Amino acid sequence: MAGGAREVLTLQLGHFAGFVGAHWWNQQDAALGRATDSKEPPGELCPDVLYRTGRTLHGQETYTPRLILMDLKGSLSSLKEEGGLYRDKQLDAAIAWQGKLTTHKEELYPKNPYLQDFLSAEGVLSSDGVWRVKSIPNGKGSSPLPTATTPKPLIPTEASIRVWSDFLRVHLHPRSICMIQKYNHDGEAGRLEAFGQGESVLKEPKYQEELEDRLHFYVEECDYLQGFQILCDLHDGFSGVGAKAAELLQDEYSGRGIITWGLLPGPYHRGATLPFHCSAILATALDTVTVPYRLCSSPVSMVHLADMLSFCGKKVVTAGAIIPFPLAPGQSLPDSLMQFGGATPWTPLSACGEPSGTRCFAQSVVLRGIDRACHTSQLTPGTPPPSALHACTTGEEILAQYLQQQQPGVMSSSHLLLTPCRVAPPYPHLFSSCSPPGMVLDGSPKGAVESIPVFGALCSSSSLHQTLEALARDLTKLDLRRWASFMDAGVEHDDVAELLQELQSLAQCYQGGDSLVD
To answer: Which of 187, 230, 273, 476 is the 20 to 30 A CA-CA neighbour of 288?
Structure first.
């Protein structure tokens, strides 16, 4: 792997995880497409951490996500399980059987017009049935952005999006997609509903061996694998798939980092029928809080990041973000931070309520997308600084000082990047096209914003004490005998009692105690 990257293997488990992942990979792909732009800041993030190089059967170089994703039968729409990048009909295995054949052909899903437009920009299907990728100037990422002579790509409408593959702009390796055929994505019957059902999936030799084979394929080509990040649905049986997958990784790859991002779709009471918007926000937050272990220079390893946040028995952290970070025209970073006062600046993205009045034990914070000219206060010589932040001489010093003021005595890791978050289409139009980029102003029209500044944080917080205790209390009230899917999965009463005890013990870890710094 070029540059000695500390590789990460991503696992996406579940359909909502697919939505978040599609946005996530689109954002990575958009960043790759801008890598040669002279107006862009120098590369601060190493794409080789998440991507792998390869070659098609025709010798063309490819650059695809180092990814294993699992979903249910009927969830791919028009996307083929083997992808479209490496397939060559001329090299398909010949059928040895010479007798009579009966062909059963499934009805094809209509291809989303947006994806048809995307594929025409990425390559061509030649007369011999072989997909040939268009050459890429810098050898990585998607084809160049449209010019004045190139028609603008179609933007998928919310009504046209049924599944996550309807807006995925990235080609996947044939070893990426793993379908669970025994459960259905659509319909009332055959659903993957319960934790125990998900656990049972990876106990079956067929699926366990398939996952292990894919893990070995990706891991063995890594020079220095730092760990695994798991995007996992929590609201259905994929929670059990994720737990079993994490257990498998711990057994086979001890010493590597394992970070699980538990995902829940937001409420749709405002009329949205698909998780297209809330998954975009979560992907943007993930693209920010994962920065420490994706840096080109002085990266923080996944193991170190996890150890910093999960000491003294703690295993869970909360996430928060400001999307986009509010920096008005003419403001400096100290001006913007001072506007928050003593309140916690970011909006919680975890189901733990408001963070006010809670205690932080340790935190990892990333602020990205602020122009260097705005990092420090440009005071007229002789003007007394209005705050200690205005007296700092670098943006990094300002951010560290601010966190110290907000949470005295707490272990805080902070990173300040020039690189913004990419929100180019098919990212939903959530931000206004004014200056600075992505800044939302009342009455401003929403336009085609391509990048925004983001402030994101991971925090080990006392708010988790009440959250985990409340979860344990709610679970004790459930009569699992009334839930057929739980009983069918072989859930035993003693197992539930043991898990409840572990959950209550975990909750106690967040009740009090000291942070890493006294």
So the answer is: 273
Residue 479, CA atoms < 13 Å, CB-side half-sphere: 2
| Distances from the Cα of 388 to the Cα of 77, 184, 335, 377, 396, angstroms | 55, 58, 11, 11, 14
Rounded CA separation 517/34 (Å): 40
Residues 101-130 have pLDDT tens digits of 565 555 556 666 666 665 555 554 444 444
At 1, is the secondary structure helix, strand, or coil?
coil
**CA–CA separation, 78 vs 89, rounded Å?**
18
Cβ atoms within 10 Å of 90's Cβ, excluding its own: 8
- Other Cβ atoms less than 10 A from the Cβ of 391: the count is 16
Angle at the Cα of 36 from the Cα atoms of 333 and 153, rounded to 5 degrees = 95
Angle made by CA atoms 348, 350, 351, in degrees to the nearest 5: 110
Of the given ranges (26-35, 108-117, 377-386, 448-457), which has the lowest mean pLDDT? 108-117
Measured between its terminal Cα atoms, the distance across the chain in Å is 41
Q: Which amino acid is at 251?
A: D
Task: Report in angstroms the alpha-carbon separations of 130 from 55, 58, 93, 468.
Answer: 14, 9, 15, 53
Tokens (6 digits) for 371: 């122009």
Residue 304 has pLDDT above 90, yes or no: yes
Stretch (H or E) spanning 470: helix 463-476
Cβ pair 89, 130 in contact under 8 A:
yes
Q: How many helices (H) and strands (E) does the chain have?
A: 12, 16
State the Cα–Cα distance between residues 515 and 501, nearest whole angstrom.
24
- In whole angstroms, give the CA distance from residue 363 to residue 303: 15
Give the pTM. 0.86
Question: Which residues does residue 100 pair with via DSSP β-bridges, in sequence order?
Answer: none
* Strands 360-368, 411-417: pairing kind: parallel
pLDDT digits (tens, 9 = 90+) for 429-487: 888 765 455 554 444 455 568 899 999 999 999 999 989 999 999 888 877 777 766 66
